[in-house]
Amino acid sequence: DSGVTQTPKHLITATGQRVTLxxxxxxxxxxxxxxxxxxxxxxxxxxxxxNGEERAKGNILERFxxxxxxxxxxxxNLSSLELGDSALxxxxxxxxxxxxxxxxxxxxxxVL
Amino acid sequence: GESVGxxxxxxxVQEGDNSIINCAYSNSASDYFIWYxxxxxxxxxxxxxxxxxxxxxxxxxxxxxxxKTVKHLSLQIAATQPGDSAVxxxxxxxxxxxxxxxFGKGTMLLVSP
Lengths: 112, 113
Known about the structure:
The complex is a heterodimer of chains A (112) and B (113). Chain A is mostly beta strands and 112 residues long. Helices cover 0% and strands 54% of the residues of chain A.
């Protein structure tokens, strides 16, 4: 167990809908990262927050957004969902910006 | 852009054998490398990392080798066990880890008892 928690574990929804994925980092970690893992694209970095502020952006679609709250948990919002958004979404956390990232168990999203 | 590459092979070994998983990276500016293990239904788990000022680093039953000349990274697992069966990813970063991680596509390791 990495200490990073993610909810929900599974999510099934329809195209055009909006969902919110939640992540709680390890105790004491200030950085939160979001990744998407699909069969054809592998593990892709989406976005990073550090102590509430956006730190880095990767291959994140405009339909996706995220935030980190004062208690350091983070949410990833996915809107106008498409079939191709079906994937595993992982959150990771680290103490600072440079330290090792520890991954949560992921949320499996299925868009029908 | 440049990215870490694994050609998604499957490596099958017998329990007790030593396993070697390889990774080729193409970004010569990368100076920090990590190996992760992902078991079915779980998130990636940190195994070991290495910085570009080193060419070898050892952990418990694992050794990472870095050859900057040919941009090659390998993970050696000694006395492989069935519990080592998983997908292994290498990842790279620049600026000593201050930039984001780029992951390779993974190698499946299957260990037979």
